[in-house]
Amino acid sequence: MDQVESPRAVVPLEAGAGPENPPCPACGEPLFGWIGQKRGLAGPVRRCESCGLAVVGESGGAEEALRDLDALRHGDTIRIENRASFACSLGNAGWSGLQPQSHYLFTTEAVRRLVARRDQIVKRRRWQPAASLAATWQTLLNSVTFGRNVALGALRGSPAVPAPEPWQRRIDALASIVLAIPAMLIAVPVELAGGIVGRGSVVSVQVELF
């Protein structure tokens, strides 16, 4: 007689809740470990498997996340480094969005859930091609440098984490120059694909009251 396999039980995300997996400030689901302690970051990074929000170090809850979100606001538009981007999936710990001052790392869905707490909606989102391409390019360079975001730090004064040793910094400078064009040739199709399917590296969202 043929044996019939029983379907695998689906374990809800809530089952992972606990002191090591605090609730996501945006949606309340548990935050799971993503990236360990790294130089230049305030602590390990946890991420939400539901809305995509990530938290560097300790979470201060929804109100603190909203304050961080408001710091990215220009009028009724908020510009975020998109943690749901192709570049982030490709780079992981080398993602350019992991900047020294980072605390909350947003996605469009996380923004939608957070602003809903104060009766706002995301009316429109828009991919930022130039900024996105630069972010993806830097993410690719981060995979071959000792420091993080050194190219954009030199070109734009963006927050960067230089390598600790002088000889490492010299190698990083050389690698950023030699590999600039090859990295750009890879970044262009990656970012175009991300922009088309809503997973671009930098996104601006327009929020309004209900």
Verbal overview:
This protein has 210 residues and is of the alpha+beta class. It contains 7 helices and 8 strands; from the N terminus they run E-E-E-H-E-E-H-E-H-E-H-H-H-H-E. It has helices spanning 62-70, 86-91, 108-116, 129-142, 150-156, 166-178, 180-196, and strands spanning 31-35, 45-48, 54-56, 73-74, 77-81, 104-105, 120-127, 202-209. Helix 4 crosses helix 7 (180-196). The relative contact order is 0.16.
Descriptive key words:
4-stranded antiparallel beta sheet; single chain; disordered N terminus
List the helices and strands and how they pair.
Elements: E1 31-35, E2 45-48, E3 54-56, H1 62-70, E4 73-74, E5 77-81, H2 86-91, E6 104-105, H3 108-116, E7 120-127, H4 129-142, H5 150-156, H6 166-178, H7 180-196, E8 202-209
Antiparallel strand pairs: 1-2, 2-3, 3-6, 4-5, 5-8, 7-8
Kindly report the average pLDDT value: 91
Distance between the termini: 60 Å
List SSEs in N-to-C order.
EEEHEEHEHEHHHHE
From the spread of the alpha carbons, the general shape counts as globular
Main sheet makeup: 4 strands, antiparallel
Structurally, how many domains make up the residues? 1
Proportion of residues in extended strands: 15-25%
Q: What's the Cα radius of gyration? A: 19 Å
How many individual helices? 7
Category by helix and strand content: alpha+beta
Spans of at least 5 consecutive residues whose pLDDT stays below 50 are 1-11
Count the beta strands. Answer: 8
Q: Which strand order do you get reading across the main beta sheet? A: 1-2-3-6
> Considering DSSP H and I runs of 4 or more, what fraction of the residues is helical?
25-40%
